Automatic annotation (TrEMBL), chains A, B, C, D:
TM ranges: none
Family as reported in the entry's similarity comment: Belongs to the chorismate synthase family.
Binding site for FMN: R125, S126, S127, N238, A239, G278, K293, P294, T295, S296, S297, R319
Gene (name only): aroC
Organism placement in taxonomy: Bacteria, Pseudomonadati, Pseudomonadota, Betaproteobacteria, Burkholderiales
Name of this protein: Chorismate synthase
GO molecular function: chorismate synthase activity; FMN binding
Amino acid sequence: MSGSTFGRWFAVTNFGESHGPAIGCVIDGCPPGLALSAEDIQPDLDRRKPGTSRHVTQRQEADRVEILSGVYEGVTTGTPIALLIRNEDQRSKDYGNLLDTFRPGHADYTYWRKYGLRDPRGGGRSSARLTAPMVAAGAVAKKWLRERYGTEVRGCMVQLGDVEIPVDDWSQTAQNPFFAASTSALPMLESAMDQLRKSGDSVGAKLRVEAQNVPAGWGAPLFDKLDAQIAYAMMGINAVKGVEIGDGFGVVTQRGSLHGDEIHPGGFASNHAGGVLGGISSGQDLVVTLAIKPTSSIRLEKSSIDRSGASTTVVTHGRHDPCVGIRATPIAEAMLALVLMDAALQQRAQGADVELPVPAVPGLHL
Amino acid sequence: MSGSTFGRWFAVTNFGESHGPAIGCVIDGCPPGLALSAEDIQPDLDRRKPGTSRHVTQRQEADRVEILSGVYEGVTTGTPIALLIRNEDQRSKDYGNLLDTFRPGHADYTYWRKYGLRDPRGGGRSSARLTAPMVAAGAVAKKWLRERYGTEVRGCMVQLGDVEIPVDDWSQTAQNPFFAASTSALPMLESAMDQLRKSGDSVGAKLRVEAQNVPAGWGAPLFDKLDAQIAYAMMGINAVKGVEIGDGFGVVTQRGSLHGDEIHPGGFASNHAGGVLGGISSGQDLVVTLAIKPTSSIRLEKSSIDRSGASTTVVTHGRHDPCVGIRATPIAEAMLALVLMDAALQQRAQGADVELPVPAVPGLHL
Amino acid sequence: MSGSTFGRWFAVTNFGESHGPAIGCVIDGCPPGLALSAEDIQPDLDRRKPGTSRHVTQRQEADRVEILSGVYEGVTTGTPIALLIRNEDQRSKDYGNLLDTFRPGHADYTYWRKYGLRDPRGGGRSSARLTAPMVAAGAVAKKWLRERYGTEVRGCMVQLGDVEIPVDDWSQTAQNPFFAASTSALPMLESAMDQLRKSGDSVGAKLRVEAQNVPAGWGAPLFDKLDAQIAYAMMGINAVKGVEIGDGFGVVTQRGSLHGDEIHPGGFASNHAGGVLGGISSGQDLVVTLAIKPTSSIRLEKSSIDRSGASTTVVTHGRHDPCVGIRATPIAEAMLALVLMDAALQQRAQGADVELPVPAVPGLHL
Amino acid sequence: MSGSTFGRWFAVTNFGESHGPAIGCVIDGCPPGLALSAEDIQPDLDRRKPGTSRHVTQRQEADRVEILSGVYEGVTTGTPIALLIRNEDQRSKDYGNLLDTFRPGHADYTYWRKYGLRDPRGGGRSSARLTAPMVAAGAVAKKWLRERYGTEVRGCMVQLGDVEIPVDDWSQTAQNPFFAASTSALPMLESAMDQLRKSGDSVGAKLRVEAQNVPAGWGAPLFDKLDAQIAYAMMGINAVKGVEIGDGFGVVTQRGSLHGDEIHPGGFASNHAGGVLGGISSGQDLVVTLAIKPTSSIRLEKSSIDRSGASTTVVTHGRHDPCVGIRATPIAEAMLALVLMDAALQQRAQGADVELPVPAVPGLHL
């Protein structure tokens, strides 16, 4: 493979560029018998799409998904599911010197070094727009996981710049534009974003994604550990610079006497591990944290060079997210669902196919 | 694949258990013409092996590597390179109740849930001992990368528990048991470890690994981004709970005006990105940080259950590392080298095969 | 993967069903810099499409290909190339009892056993219509191979039922509906087909595909031998039941003194091997032969069962090829091109990157 | 991957050269809970090993297999199973000019073109000796398939040169050195081989391999069709030049009215398809035929060139099989078992997981 297919069993092949005629993906490996229609996919696409609040890019994209194959009479057939999203807002704007300039923080320079040429329109292949097909594929995985195992994936923002956001009410994530699981921080978030837009600058963010009711036994040692696959999935999301499982970097100063989660007949006593031991799910909640860098496209001038190697400056006008982290929550959820889907199928094929002598230890829902 | 093969082009298939007759790996995809002998591999194995100082496990393993195939007259032939390491110290000790007990923080419970049975001797397949073949494979990758591209991979410990370790002299990493790139912290590290051993407890650590002289253009979007593959490789190392690229979680509070590395004709002005833009190497130093949890095997009693689901307690005697992070530095170096090797071959096959109009921008060596 | 992706480096993921909204594929791994437009692809699609003569199905499909991604300003960018073909002739005909009946010789029964359900419209996923996207992908591979290595792929029919077709003038393959490389057999082919249509029966065929100017050194031992990959590709084409390389089954009665192709400084003296030795191309012409079974859909009544297991009979009316082998020539060419493309990229990554001491031995063009 | 791993789920990675210290393989993906010891593997290795009769090479190799990992207390653990076979008979003979000469019919020239160098000792990596680890891995697959599904794989020789061998008593295959399923042809086979050895020449052969009690539903469209994977596996065996499924090349002259196997409530009425429809197993016997070329190493002089490109002649003395087809039967059985094992795991993960409304149609045992 050449990097555009995610997953081994539930394999999602992604295609498209920001300003091409269309983007989409092909899912190969979805088990047959899952009731599926565009209506199952569209809600997650709508959560990710631009223009939903003043705090995100005002680019207009309906992001309507079309199912081209793999579904017959409303049910998956086990054959590839092709999902197509037509690009609409391909504004033929004046790119100024951007076509020849390597924008700081962007992939302009590296794509050009890799391929010897690049599609500069809106970042081409490197645009975060290419996460939309993954959100669509993730919605299929979410539905299958929910129906087969009761597994639920959810995410929220826990920090935006200097504003820390408590996690005290998950129901709130659907009620505000920040995917904040709390109402207390909303005023600070609103004002912080308003100042940010005025300044023309951008800021980073921290997100948390979780999965509940993950059966114990998912994940394949040595290298396809569940946490390794999660790290691969999350670090592959545009702008992500750090990934943690469970206590993450907090373990550096921990003692083993604290970190090791004790087990009682009634269940685990804590979840420092974040739901994974030895790369295999323990039945506890999966807890993942990720760091997202500030948007590279800002209105403030930065120095760079053009393709001839000469000095130039870059100022990005137009429609950009002051904090790409805001729209990343549904993306991170989708990627986590895709990892779990793959692990579930791997376990069906190669895990124990005998009944275990005692039931699983109940996980701890923190 | 089922999780025991790392890499697509330079594919390393790992086998073995802690107390089985042997461990090893098969490297498929090493280009022909590389001068290679066991002497090229042994030094890295010796850096990782136990018993080298009082601060690590006293388990005795020579970890002598034997090359079984793929080399003829001292040169790689392009065919699979099989590396074998015989296990020597398979102490048939009294495991007490450990065979039936799920040790907190270990993979005992999860392996048993996944497979319905497990090899409990020394952790079986989940033992960190299985990183030895990867260190051996990584030594092959390091040599090829150095000879073809001048790429150098190095690592050091930057924090042990509460003791932060400055990075001021890389030459020191070979002079102390902690892989510390400084002499200033050594007294604190020695005393911290001595107290730790007395206490019977364990502690976490933070490591940094870097690669210099990485050509621009390595890494395959969308999913096989270089940083995504690094995250996958690092999180797959035993006990790792967090991975950062460049500024990592520091980006959460950064502004875009700071984070985006400016480019001048003479080179990049900073390296907040850590050598990767859009998942593709920029030619700057790759900078990776990882968090390693405290050793789960400690002499302090913890609660758990046995296979019947009944309550029990666990106290681990015997020979364990009070800080597994100490011996993890050569492992992290090896995994980074394996990721780069794979990316180098991918670029040879699928990258630009034309001369680019201007030379690469020189990277910044911080 | 789950079977819908062909190739490791030049990876083609196929999707769609015979009567769904669209069929297509995503090519991941095409090197950048190849000039490409729909006009480069359409001619091969037109060679395969139905309705081109009275000897093939009269189903009407324009099979117009749309390039959705991977091409910018007329040149491939190195990112995935998505190719879309909308289905037009989805005649909502009366399927009679076909929806519940397992047609003899078809995949109806086996798909139903595999998936527990199936899309019965026109064979759904098992329809030969799904070869169209491969012909499109093959056209991309053909163009790249021709431009980089001068490699040419060609095919012809060498037998239709009892009518053997000599290979004496390759230029004729474009001049007749049978892809016959000769004019001498045309009258017999015409009359044989006319009688066949009257009878309501179908017949098998034998095809030959060749590749010229294949560089020596392509193919990866042990399992991805070039001939093994060719066999995989050809046997995967609908209705193929046999594959031969070089002398094929003729070797059973041969002596080694005859079979082993002697080598002279001026070149090989013969090509019994068909261009492959030890699974690696020798620089001689690749010669492949395949056997294609008679069309399973015929107007003559056959016995079968329905989904309840009860006896029934099947008579297939409507538009079917009396000899599916006729339209299979461009398909076989495309699959051979895809195998070669993959092998070429593999060799770029993992073969010798040094100049060999003497030039390759010239191959023999028989 | 680079060609040395066979299978996706039951992935067998092969290593070694003919005259290196050892050969072997690593099986990744074997389900846990299979009782396994070297005694389960050795019998098939003994069927393949040299020196068992005067009609095969007299090279002496005990081919004793050692299980290095993946088995604990006599049962597979689900982790990689490493199998090691030490090379014993590495006769340091006088290779004469063979080290510099490209032997006609061998891989000498093509390996050298691919890699720029080669291990010439006994053919190095291209030696049929590398099939031994596959026979060992196949024995593991055979045992699992037999225990889980009652699937049985068997093979026999059906033609040696001009001598056709009837298939009338499968029990005889273990009673004669030719794997002939009949006693009637033995005298002719004996005399044919004796004459052949005197002449210093070699001859080709045709083999049949079958699998019984293969559940319907195995095989993954579009490309991983069961027959496509079988063709890939068989053509990958040294010296194989042709593969047929069911009636194979016989279909060229067949009519559809004959070929399509009718289905009755009691079962299929015939098995022209050879057990596969649309690339998916039908529950009927899998029937595969393969053509094996005459041994390239003969005592008769042939012309070739050396590495300088100069003319030379080759005469192969020493210990070679006058008909490599004789020892190929257990190899073909093993490869078929490996294909089925992979397909079984694929179906467990991605096939129907619901009970089908009616039982499978019984297959036809011809």
